[in-house]
Amino acid sequence: MMCCARFRFFLLAFLVALLTTACGGGGTGSVAVPPVTPALDNAVAVRVDTGPADAGYNVNRLYVDLKICRPGSAECQTVDHVLLDTGSTGLRLLSSALSPSLSLTRLTGASGYPLLNCVQFVDNTFAWGPMVTADIVLGGKTASNVPMQIIADPSFGVAPGSCSVGGTAITNSANLGANGILGLGLFREDCGADCAGTTHNGSYYTCTSASCTNTTGAKASLAQQLTNPVTRFASDSNGFVIELPAATGAANSLTGSLIFGIGTQANNQPTAVRALTTTASGYFTTLLGGQSMVNSFLDTGSNGYFFDSSVVRPCTGSGAGFYCPDTPTTLSATLVGVNDARSTVLFSVGDASTMFGDASKAVFPNLAGPMGDATSFDWGLPFFYGRRVWVGIEGQTSALGTGPYYAF
User: Fold this and answer.
1) Cβ-contact 137, 41 below 8 angstroms
2) CB-based burial of residue 242 (10 Å sphere; 0-12 exposed, 13-18 middle, 19+ buried)?
3) Distance CA 283, CA 298 (A)
4) Per-block average pLDDT, block size 10, for the chain (408 residues)?
5) Do both 278 and 183 map to the same domain?
6) 270, 407 in Cβ contact below 8 A?
7) What span, in angstroms and rounded, lies between the C-alpha atoms of 396 and 387?
8) Residue 257 domain-assigned?
9) What distances in angstroms separate CA 388 from CA 33, 268, 272, 316, one per listed residue?
10) What is the pLDDT, as a whole number, of residue 2?
11) Which of 232, 255, 287 is at the close of a domain?
12) Phi and psi of 381, rounded to 5°?
């Protein structure tokens, strides 16, 4: 893996979600709530469903629609089913989902040739494409002139070996499960000082000639890196809240809200919540069954709870990669912040093979699987069902403190 440390692990967790190709389970029907206080300009609807029409079947994937525009112009396009991922930073959209008429301006490296980005994933896939700038519109909020990535732009079809490493390129919504990724996490940029100061950082490249038949590693300044668009809002920019209704069983779909700002408007006031600060890399500790998992994090981009357990039976066959206990198993974990703030969380693990029996269902609150790393707990999308979760961005202040932190 070549990405910088704080970005790499979150993206690995996100790709666990991409491994799901199985079908859904039985249970209740759709669950829907309107966005919180929709009259305010800082709220936008989010939803869990089976994904874009041409993307196969997806479960526990949180999607948002957004609009991108050529900077400073009215030339815009709305893109639906963009994966909302708290485990990465910045906007990445598939070239196939964009209209060529947008003509977004490409960023360039020190040589004056295009700047490109690479992301590698644990399922042996990778995303490759140029960096451009765009105005990003989410509800009533606009982030202006934000660096973002175009995935699988045909003008830059050959990734360097250090990016592909023999893997499979993500080229369309069928192998991504979405039309793009909106990384709204704890950080301002995707790899910060590491990529700004190191030429061969594994994330950024530039062409060596106008034909771009070859590329080489390149530094990317903070101003050029994939950027959390929330930090570019004129207001409500210190963090955000994700609010999803509870799901007591499998459901066809679910609708909730993404609310920008913490303590800045009536709909994002933090009351009766506890903030857990994280390390500089975005981790807190999970205590579970005698284990101390120091590299734990919250990640809407993962479609289940992922942790290693000796007491929950793993699946075989179509459910491989998930847990299949004989009966639903309720577990209790304690989440501990760097500030020693603690919160006890009860969660349930169900039989994934049984869940994967009805392709009409996209919401599974009890989906879980092995992590393959005894030091880590990936609290994926099921953690967010029935909660309001605040995400405080690094260096930004609110009544809950200075980010990075999670609060719920």
Assistant:
1) no
2) buried
3) 9
4) 32 39 36 47 97 92 97 96 95 96 94 93 81 97 98 90 88 94 96 95 94 93 98 98 96 98 97 96 97 97 95 92 96 98 98 92 97 96 98 97 98
5) no
6) yes
7) 22
8) no
9) 13, 10, 11, 34
10) 28
11) 232
12) -55, -35
105's CB contacts (< 8 A; 6+ apart) are: 70, 71, 132, 133
- The token pair at 195 is 């990529």
By residue count, the chain amounts to 408
Q: Would residue 240 count as lying in a domain?
A: no
Q: Residue by residue, what is the 3-state secondary structure of the chain?
A: CCCCHHHHHHHHHHHHHHCCCCCCCCECCCEECCCCCCCCCCEEEEEECCCCCCCCCCCCCEEEEEEEECCCCCCEEEEEEEEEECCCCEEEEEHHHCCHHHCCCECECCCCCEEEEEEECCCCEEEEEEEEEEEEEECCEEEEEEEEEEECCHHHCCCCHHHHCCCEECCCHHHHCCCEEEECCCCCECCHHHHHHCCCCCCEEEECCCCCCCEEECCCCCCCCCECHHHHCCCCCCEEEEEECCCCCEECCEEEEEEECCCCCHHHCCCCCCEEECCCCCCEEEEECCEEEEEEEECCCCCCEECCCCCCCECCHHHCCCECCCCCEEEEEEEECCCCCEEEEEEEECCHHHHCCCCCCCECCCCEECCCCCCEEEECHHHHECCEEEEECECCEECCEEECEEEC
As given in the structure block, the two tokens for residue 384 are 């967010």
Measured CA distances, 265 to 133, 260, 322, 387, 394 (Å): 29, 9, 40, 19, 20
Q: Is the peptide bond before 328 cis (omega within 30 degrees of 0)?
A: no
Q: Which of 347, 314, 146, 111 is nearest to 230 (CA)?
A: 146
Residue 361, domain CATH = 2.40.70
Token pair of 41 as six digits:
């300009």
Q: What is the pLDDT of residue 126?
A: 86
> Is the same domain home to 205 and 275?
no
